[in-house]
Amino acid sequence: MTGSLPTVAVVAILAAGAAIVVIACVAAALWRARHAAHPDAAVLAELTRAHADAAARLEAMVRMLGDRQSQLQHSVNERLDTVSHRLGESIHKTTQSTTENLQKLNERLAVIDSAQKNITALASQVNSLHGVLANKQSRGAFGQGRMEIIIRDGLPKDCYAFQYTLSNRLRPDCAIFLPDDRPLIIDSKFPLEAVTAYRDAKGDDERKQAAARVRQDVAKHVADIAQKYLIPGETQELAFMFVPSESVYAELHEDFDEVVQKAFRAKVIIVSPSLLMLAIQLMRQIQRDARMREAADQIRDEVGRLMKDVSLLGDRIRKLQGHFNQSNEDIRQSIISIEKIEGRGERIQQVEFSAEAAAGENAGVAPVRRLEAGE
Asked: Which domain holds residue 57?
């Protein structure tokens, strides 16, 4: 309703302007007629009629303008109501969408906050790890601990030993016992100083010197492992050099492939944590297959003993069957004897009955004679 007031005012102003224009025209015509030298009655009548027509037209125009104004006001009100309804729905949807977006934003902010905390904790762990790796003894303990975790998680307790003593009185970091009774030796020490210097090198000359140091240190460590831990007839023909970092292992293969190949020819395999886990799983399967073969041999021996026992049992059952057959024959003969005894008993009873029927003939002498006669 308030939005339609300016439009109604404009229409009223237009109607008033039109009325003023008509009145001005009529007034001008009357003024000309009044100031004429000799006004004619016909002219006056014409002017009066024109004035009446103008008044009627003005009234019709005012009425028409009023109708148009009411229609326009009704149309404007309907449109304003429609616009207000749409605007309300739009505001409601916008508010709902804004609320949902704010909730999602809060959730994402919470996730970002949690991720930032994790990143902060990871940064502190990386700093502590850097401190550990900077010290040679701490780095050795770190590599030993990581190797021990991988081996403990992959093998039974009786399949490995840490700090195992060899015949040359040396004690490698780990020995894994394989089915042929020759342990596989794993060394967890690695010369990381040269690799760190190679990474931190800034100029080409410094980088070349660091690369030469990496080749020299790794080659020396490989030679030490091969000399100390590869004992013919006692250990396996291969030994593992454990690198506790996947990135260092990848860098060795990428930039120092000749060092890796030289170690392989020396029968020292450089392994990363993932490769060590894979090798542990393979050795576990080998040990399991060996145990299954031992169990199969034991089962075969036990089956042979079982068949022997079954054969003995069959012989004894056949003997027992012979005894049963003899017992059946003895039982049959016994039954025959029992039947004879029963028949004789019946005859004895019949003899007694006949003696009673005689009623004292010969005072029982005749029955005794018949009994003696075997009747």
From this structure: 2-109
Q: Is residue 55 part of a domain?
A: yes
330 occurs within a structural domain: no
- What is each CA distance from 144 to 57, 61, 164, 260, 326, in whole angstroms? 113, 107, 14, 21, 79
Please answer whether residues 355 and 364 qualify as being in contact, where contact means their C-beta atoms are separated by less than 8 angstroms.
Answer: yes
The answer on 141 and 256 residing in a single domain is yes
Question: pTM of the prediction?
Answer: 0.46
Output the domain CATH number for residue 154: 3.40.1350
Which of 66, 188, 78, 61 shows the shortest CA–CA distance to 137? Answer: 188
* Helix (H) or strand (E) segment spanning residue 270: strand 268-271
Do 55 and 147 have their domain in common? no
Residue 177 forms part of a structural domain: yes
CA atoms within 13 A on the CB side of 219: 12
Count the domains in the chain.
Answer: 2
The CB-side HSE value for 113 (13 A sphere, CA atoms) comes to 6
CA dist 15 to 6, 9, 374, Å?
14, 10, 172
Answer whether residue 333 is part of any domain: no
* Cα separation, 364 vs 356, whole angstroms: 9
Provide the residue-wise pLDDT of the chain in tens; the chain has 375 residues. 444 445 555 555 655 566 666 566 656 655 565 555 445 667 677 777 777 777 787 778 778 887 887 888 888 888 888 888 888 888 888 888 888 888 888 888 888 888 888 887 776 665 555 554 555 555 556 678 888 888 888 888 888 899 888 888 999 989 998 887 789 999 988 777 777 788 888 888 888 888 888 888 888 999 999 999 998 888 888 999 998 888 888 888 888 888 889 998 999 999 988 898 888 888 888 888 877 877 777 788 888 888 888 888 888 888 888 888 888 888 888 888 888 888 888 888 776 555 555 555 554 444 444 444 444
Q: How far apart, in whole angstroms, are the C-alpha atoms of residue 147 and residue 189?
A: 10
For tokens 């190949």, the residue is 261
14 in the same domain as 103: yes
